[in-house]
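Help needed: design a sequence for this.
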């Protein structure tokens, strides 16, 4: 998916506005290098939030970026890597559960003679339990 084109002057204006706002904030608890780093990180977050908001609006096939898109983008940025990890865990669990159901379904098919062994059924049952646990873990973390 191509990165959406964002007019650079609007991003730079937003960053400058944030910098101006930060100038009025007292840097008392922060050292001078720490406050400078804070301003840089805020600028970086602003750019990421703008880009992610645009991507969310594109995923929803919207013509403009709405407040809901910005809120979703902020949530996506805040949860970041951990949310993605749990999504992959859930997807992997679904795959394992799907794989494990095939032997059980083949046993119940009336038109073919049963082709199963006890060890393969045990392995399938373990995969089904593991897959179910992974899906439940994903749902619990969402």
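Sure. Designed sequence:
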């Amino acid at each position: 998916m191509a990165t959406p084109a964002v007019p650079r002057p609007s991003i730079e204006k937003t960053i400058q506005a944030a910098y101006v706002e930060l100038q009025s904030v007292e840097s008392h608890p922060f050292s001078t290098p720490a406050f400078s780093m804070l301003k840089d990180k805020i600028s970086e977050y602003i750019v990421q939030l703008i880009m992610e908001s645009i991507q969310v609006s594109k995923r929803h096939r919207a013509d403009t970026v709405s407040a809901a898109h910005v809120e979703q983008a902020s949530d996506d940025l805040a949860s970041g890597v951990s949310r993605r990890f749990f999504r992959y865990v859930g997807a992997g669990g679904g795959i394992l559960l799907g794989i494990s159901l095939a032997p059980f379904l083949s046993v119940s098919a009336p038109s073919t003679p049963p082709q199963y062994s006890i060890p393969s059924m045990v392995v399938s049952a373990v995969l089904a339990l593991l897959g179910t646990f992974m899906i439940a873990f994903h749902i619990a973390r969402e």
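The mean pLDDT is 82.
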